[in-house]
Amino acid sequence: MLFNSYVFIFCFLPIVLAGYALLRRGSNLLWPVGWLVLASLVYYAWWRPEFLLLLLFSITVNFGFGTLIIDGGLSRAQSRAILTIGIVFNLCLLGYFKYAGFFVANVDSILGLQWAVPSIVLPIGISFITFQKIAFLVDAHRGLVRNFTLLNYAFFVTFFPQLIAGPITHHSEIMPQIGPSQRRDLAADIAVGMSIFVVGLFKKVVIADSLAVYADAGYATVKAGHPLDSASAWVTVLSYSFQLYYDFSGYSDMAVGLARMFGFQLPVNFYSPYKSTSIIDFWRRWHITLSRFLRDYLYIPLGGNRHGTLRRYLNLGIVMLLGGLWHGANWTFVIWGGLHGLMLTVNHAWRALPVSRSLAFKTRLADRVAVLVTFTAVTLAWVLFRSETLADAKAMFAYLWPMTADPMGWPSFKGLLRTQFTDLRYALTLTEWFRPRELWPAILPPDYLATATRPMGLLLVGVGIATFAMPNTYQIFGRFKPALGLPEETLGSGILRRLDWRVAIIVAGMFLLAVLRLSHVSPFLYYQF
Amino acid sequence: MIESGYLRALVLSLAAWLSLYLIFTWTIDPYGVSPIRLEFPRINALKPKRTDIDRILKPYEVWRYQPRTIFLGTSRANQSLDPSTLDGTRFAPAYNAAIPGGASMKMHAAYLEQYLRLDHNLRTVIVELFLPHMVGGPTPTWADFIGNTVSLFASANTLWDSLATLAYNAVSGRPIHQIERAGYFYHPNRPDPKTLFERFPSYIWSAAVHQPDRATFDQAAFDGALEIIQIARANNLELIFLIGPSHPYPDYYYDAIGAWGVIEEWLTKLSALATVYSFSQPNGWVDEPISPHMTYWYDTFHYSLAMGRGMLRSLAGAPTSGLPDNFMERLTPDRVASNIERRRAAVRRWAEANPSLVAQFEEARRKWLASEKTSH
């Protein structure tokens, strides 16, 4: 079940919220927490019920490990051994479901063993759930776990707002909230949570999904072996860059908003990453809880920055390579991770140079250039993230390079400028705007995305302005303490001072647009007589 | 601070926005489906967005209008058969439910089943046969019907297309192509047919057509036709298959790839099982000379509304004048061979009279065959 689906918005959420409101009236915490666990299991089982058994099995085994570590009276060494077994168990589950096919395919291609590549369906959210459980076991071993019961643990793992795609939470962040959440003003939490959820839904459904059509068309063209001109290639990669941004930002907002409706605060996971002035800054703003997990449970155990500069860079590289692999079982993700590791290393090396601290690099202009450079680097790296094969990525990089005078190179940008911006006969022909089709033609002309998909240019400019110039959700709702881990200045200076009828009008309008966007009238492009 | 009435304001605002949305989209009505049906010149009379959405729109309109007769077919039937021609005949009211672009026999069968559930007034179904299209295609489901109908009334596209419709009517106001109320496609500004005829060789011998050099009997497609016959019999429907007019140029193509045997096999088998009328006989209308202004042809494959009116009036037995004597012919198994022989002879005559078109065709074919040989 997706957050951006009719069934979730109009059935699941109202029922769960109503049940929760009723059950929390009593004094027994078991009922509301149990209700949320039950709802979360239904939510998880919606896609493929058989994976619920896997989730329950994994919860039971991890609860056993946790009980042994916390209440087993074990020595430090014994506790460490149980922790190791627990981590191996969780990684084996993840490895089997996510990486077995990748591993077999690669061994087979290297050794030519003619192995059959297994086709294993990936249980939804397993990457996040695995990290969450590993984090719990490590915290248990470190003595950081309180209020440890089966119900609480099941709630911590399965709480549906963060079950499928994070944020990856610590036990210590969620457990202390269970008691107080029952005493909070539910109506106020619903008001704040619903408003944040709607903002996230709007970002995901209206912005990200609109851009996805064009990004998908461009990448599909390249995958089919057909050329793109440079302008269309840039339209494709920029569309994807902003699509991914608003997809993840929207999802994170929805998760935070949903949790808040039930009185819980999740950690902040996304904080205007495209406003970063460096790659280091980017990873402090993009998927913050993953970066935190990798830092706390991989980078620091590897030695972090405690063993000299070279070792630090090596550790960074290892962490980012594994971080890349965590995103998907494909060499494109590994190389994407490696590339970010390399960029982080260069960034750290640059910061170590005295010249980087000169006043020339502290100006507003320098900051803006740094934001542009960082955004460009991140956007180009997304080519690897989005391409299905390294060959597709290579082809896309080649199309992005405009240094030729033929129509596929620099001149293609003239066509883009003319049709999208300067020639009003094209740019303002309203009936020809926004025509995402049911099926793209088998072969798109190379300049199709740059010239025919109007007003793609205006859309990208609008989204760019929104991304770089507007405040983020937390800066808007900061005064309502929407998430954990926000900077103090954000909490104190949120743009919205009060939720009143004016905000209600805007939020309701965004909600209606988003819900309407869930349904499509998709024209069919007749490409064959 | 959260005002005490915030949630109530949220609900009321949502109701207000929704009301505005409904008033606006039902008034502008970009897809012509509004329950209130208001039409204002320079505001919403022209519907530029009521196009390319046949698969979404037509099941809904069949359910809404409950026609007695429906047409199934591809873009030929869609562009050229105006159901109002049948007004006053036993077939009325009729609706053109043809789906352009890749419609197959299997798809027609699935749509027919759906239409039988949606339309309790249905008595006759007229199915266009177009031989190159007897391939697979998506089939409709109930979930599609519900999802598509919801999308016509409640989607961001509806809002956007309402704005586009309003802008087009206010700014341009020129007649534009759209699906007419009875389901057929009307294009007021057709391009010069001669140019389109001249493009035929480069189109047919290109990657846009799957295996253009082959013609084999497609059993799955024929099974689709059998399925349509079974559905019609089981539901006591009158079923008529139409062989639409075929210009000598595409007939030359069928001749060149040796397709006559397949066509004969199809028609012989089908005419033994169902009523089949052919409009492909060579005559003054079908063989109209290619020129920039043609009366009976829009392009190589698409015959005109004038031709379509003649077909429907002939079919309904309505009084007609000026039609060629052999315009409509009922095919029976014993008549198929002679019908095809007449077409073949006409093609050869046409080829002799049009050497430049034949040369263009053969040059495109030679290039395609050479490129195929290289790629293999």
Descriptive notes:
- The complex is a heterodimer of chains A (529) and B (376).
- Chain A is mostly helical and 529 residues long.
- Chain A is built from 22 helices and no strands.
- Chain A has helices at 6-23, 30-45, 50-71, 76-111, 126-141, 150-158, 171-181, 186-223, 230-261, 279-285, 288-302, 309-327, 331-352, 364-386, 390-400, 411-422, 424-427, 448-452, 456-469, 473-477, 488-492, 501-517.
- In chain A, helix 9 (230-261) packs across helix 19 (456-469).
- The longest helix of chain A is centred in the middle third of the chain and has 38 residues, at 186-223.
- The model of chain A is unreliable at 525-529 (pLDDT under 50).
- By secondary structure, chain B is an alpha/beta fold.
- Helices cover 49% and strands 8% of the residues of chain B.
- Chain B has 13 helices and eight strands.
- A six-stranded mixed sheet of chain B has the order 2-1-3-6-7-8. Chain B has a two-stranded antiparallel ribbon with strand order 4-5.
- In chain B, helix 2 (54-65) packs across helix 5.
- The longest helix of chain B has 23 residues, at 6-28.
- Classes of the chains: A mainly alpha (529), B alpha/beta (376).
- Chains A and B meet through helix 8 and helix 22 of A and helix 1, helix 2, helix 5 and helix 6 of B.
